[in-house]
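Protein entry
_____________
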Amino acid sequence: MTYSSFHDLSICIFVNLKSIKNKINSSHANYANMGLVKDIYTPDFYQSIADQFYAIDPDFDRAKFIADIFVSKFDHLEWKQRTKHTTEVLHQFLPKDFSEAAQIITQVVEKLLASGASGGLAYIIFPDYIETYGLDHFDVSVRSFEVITKFISCEFAVRPFLIKYQDQMIREMEKWSRDPHAAVRRLASEGSRPRLPWAMAIPFLKADPSPILPLLYNLRNEPSETVRRSVANNLNDIAKDHPTVVIEIAKKWKGISASTDALIKHASRTLLKQGHPEILAFYGLQNTGSEVKNLLLKTAIVKIGDSLNFSFELQNLHNQAQLVRLEYGIYYLKANGQLSRKVFKISEKIYQAGEVKTLSRHQSFKLITTRKFYLGNHKLSIIVNGQETLETYFELV
């Protein structure tokens, strides 16, 4: 499993557990037959871990380590609990001095990297160990992150350090942004995201993102697509609190390269979905000259597990071609009876003068882990260049 694919996998565990089976590397094919994420912690994995530590430290008691892992409560632990349990057991078998323990962990990682081994989700115990026991050991922990993140991403583990040490950690991250290794550069941008999903937010960066702008600037023409995607996500986080900061960055970075143009477009996605006038103008998206008509619900009553199916017509009323960004909004009914909109992109393309096009879409209402559906009236709207046009209601039953 590559570094990039692990990152995608680590996100998916929170989004859709079922999709993990499709993202696990063939070298971990035995995981694919397991229904639960927690089952990545297998006897073979622990035997491998024990052997790896024993190879570095002959005093490491492999048999007792494995016995202490598989205590009676193990079968009842969920994935995160098993991760923390493993970290705590490992702590009992490593030197009490954190610097010595961290050195052994990084030696294990370096040996794994040298052997060509692929980092998998189970190895998240390594950054978790540094986060759990190294918060009062800044220098040692930072050096450990630089090694471990080349094997298993550390973006969650660095965040308590960013909160505790702030300026000192920002300086280290700025150095990381200039590191020769792409995984370390990515840690600079991903670890410093003000609103990294499923992780603790960074309040001082939400309030003022200026401390991390220099490290993002260093990555403006980044060769690695994985790092560019991280930079775009960081800027998108910033845009939620400071839209003008991101708009100004987009203006300054435009034209540096095709990949940088794609980066700032991805970074602007929340502003585009919000219909922010300045970013719409920046991308040449006019708010007039298009007409939406004949919005048709093919399924006005939708059952849980089925899809909302709809169609509509779009006409370019201009006598010249124009760029049109098409989206639709689903106003989901919430527990309190209010509606909350989520925007989905359809397309962004050139429509010729007078062109009329019929478009059809469907929106799934299959049960997923990240959204609870409430029965009753929901709303659909069609959005053209950031502006809502036609809308209608449908019932979820």
The two ends are 41 Å apart (CA to CA). The longest strand covers residues 339-351. The domain at 290-396 is CATH 2.60.40.10 (Immunoglobulin-like). The first helix runs from residue 3 to 15.
